[in-house]
Amino acid sequence: LLQSQFAWMSYVSMVAIFLFVIFFEVGPGPIPWFIVAELFSQGPRPAAITIAGFCNWTCNFIVGMCFQYIADLCGPYVFVIFAALLLAFFLFAYFKVPETKGKSFEEIAAAFRRKKHSAIRGAKAMTELEDLRGSEEA
């Protein structure tokens, strides 16, 4: 947006792109590769890495094929979309991905089971509570 007014703004744009790539590669970029190794034991790990890699490269392909169209639609604000997605992925990783430092696969699996069972129990409790309310009204 400002490149027509300031000649040096093209350098700022290049530096911003390099910083974006650096922060992506240090932050959420390697998640499909290292989180699979952390969450899966030796047996299912190759299949999980294959699926994670497929999803990663498919998304990269889609972004590469659609970027020009998105840039034409959004103009100089095209990276706002990527910044918003990066924020959403950060929040997902912060709230949903368990801490695996110093834990065995069994401990990690047990943490997932606890979350799953507590979510199921919470849904059942809500359903039972709704049933109780319904029977009181009748």
Topology:
Blueprint: H1 9-26, H2 31-39, H3 45-74, H4 78-96, H5 105-137
Helix pairs in contact: 2-3
Structure description:
- This protein folds into two domains: 97 residues, no CATH class; 37 residues.
- With 138 residues, it is an all-alpha fold.
- The longest helix has 33 residues.
- Helix 2 packs antiparallel against helix 3.
- It comes from Crypturellus undulatus.
- It is found in: Membrane.
- Keywords: Membrane, Transmembrane, Transmembrane helix.
Straight-line N-to-C gap:
65 Å
Helix content range of the residues, please?
over 70%
Biggest sheet character: none
Structural class by SSE content = mainly alpha
Order of secondary-structure elements? HHHHH
* Radius of gyration from CA coordinates: 22 Å
Q: How many strands in all?
A: 0
Shape: elongated
Question: What is the residue-averaged pLDDT?
Answer: 78
**Low-pLDDT segments:** none
Query: Strand-residue fraction?
Result: under 5%
- Count of the domains: 2
